[in-house]
Design a protein that fits this description.
Strand content of chain A: 15-25%
CATH class of chain A: Alpha Beta
Radius of gyration of chain B: 12 Å
Shape of chain B: globular
Largest sheet of chain A: 5 strands, parallel
Oligomer: heterodimer
Distance between the termini of chain A: 51 Å
Number of strands of chain A: 10
Structural class of chain A: alpha/beta
CATH topology of chain A: TIM Barrel
Largest interface: A-B, 35 and 22 residues
Helix content of chain B: 10-25%
Structural class of chain B: mainly beta
CATH superfamily of chain A: Aldolase class I
CATH class of chain B: Alpha Beta
Number of helices of chain A: 8
Number of domains of chain A: 1
Radius of gyration of chain A: 20 Å
Strand content of chain B: 35-45%
CATH superfamily of chain B: Beta-grasp domain
């Protein structure tokens, strides 16, 4: 596949994976490996000293994967900025998946707080990948603020519903000056392929892998979906039309005088 | 003395450094990031930063997330 370039750094894979909700570390690692991903997201939470867990970082080879910390749990710009700074202090590269989701039911991102946080984090030297609703105007504002990508949602996080925001994502892609990463709601490889066929630069998947009966095999399926979609986009898809147009010649034998 | 550790009150017999507390709790300082009274403390400064009565400490680490 052709290279994906984000903030001057090139990647071979156009599939990013999340590390949440897996039944075991082994399942998570199988999904990471099957996906062929080079970017994996992680979250920051308080250490639970009553229930000590094995460190997540021991499972992720930093030479193979770029760790992309998210700001999940942040309900406003201030909390998101705090989490991003903590992630950098923990030794991560200054990349951050910025998410501000004050609404606990649909986990929809807050556009105003996201933009505010993006402006601060870009000034502080972060490479900011903001998770947004599929709003083309917001996407423009964020790109003007200097974000490295925009990450519009296909459907709310964890819903597996696919590209419900398709028309707006098409506008974002048409107008984008940075890579567009479709994030959230992609539940099947066909959803990922659809996003890539439309010209999305990459997709991010977590729940669909984590809840699959076989996460590793599902990750392979998503990798193929992403590759097929990208190749189809590059090859140039035919236009849709209403009237039929025969693929076989209509002349040359039957009913000819 | 008492501090607030990850949102919960915690009694300490005497003033100790953040590093000493992490050691007592068997937390590997390379796997965590520490916020002391809302300021991030770098790994190098954990041993030289004492905890005082009323301090707030947050000890954060990476977990799975999307």
């Amino acid at each position: 596949m052709d290279e994906l370039i984000i903030a001057g750094r090139s990647f071979t894979s156009r599939l990013m994976v999340g590390t949440g909700k897996f039944a075991s570390n082994a399942a998570m690692v199988a999904a990471m490996e099957g996906s062929g991903s080079e970017i994996v997201t992680v979250a920051l939470r308080r250490v639970d000293i009553d229930n000590p867990q094995d460190s997540l970082l021991r499972q992720i080879d930093p030479t193979r994967y770029l760790l992309l910390p998210n700001t999940s749990g942040a309900r406003n710009a201030e909390e998101a900025i705090r989490l991003a700074r903590l992630a950098r202090a923990a030794g991560c590269e200054p990349w951050v998946k910025l998410e501000v989701t004050p609404d606990p039911y649909y986990l929809l991102p807050d556009p105003i707080e996201t933009l505010k946080a993006a402006e601060v984090l870009v000034r502080e030297g972060f490479i900011v990948l903001p998770y947004i609703n599929a709003d083309p105007v917001l996407a423009k504002h964020l790109q003007e603020a200097g974000t490295a990508t925009v990450m519009p949602l296909g459907a709310p996080i964890g819903t597996n519903k696919g590209l419900r925001t398709r028309d707006n994502i098409a506008i974002i892609i048409e107008q984008a000056i940075v890579p567009v990463v479709v994030d959230a709601g992609l539940g099947a490889p066909s959803h990922a392929a659809e996003a890539m066929e439309m010209g999305a630069d990459a997709v991010l998947v977590n729940t669909a892998l984590a809840v699959a009966r076989n996460p590793g095999a599902m990750a392979v399926a998503f990798r193929k979906g992403v590759e097929a979609g990208r190749e189809a986009y590059l090859a140039g898809l035919g236009k849709q039309q209403d009237k039929a147009e025969a693929s076989s010649p209509l002349t040359g034998f039957l009913r000819e005088k | 003395m008492e501090i607030t550790f990850n949102g919960k009150p915690r009694r300490l017999p005497k003033s100790i450094s953040i590093q000493e507390l992490l050691d007592q709790l068997q937390l590997d300082c390379r796997q965590v990031v520490v916020e002391h009274n809302r300021s991030i403390v770098s790994h190098q400064r954990l041993a030289e930063t004492p905890l005082n009565h009323g301090d707030t400490l947050e000890v954060i680490h990476f977990v799975g997330g999307g």
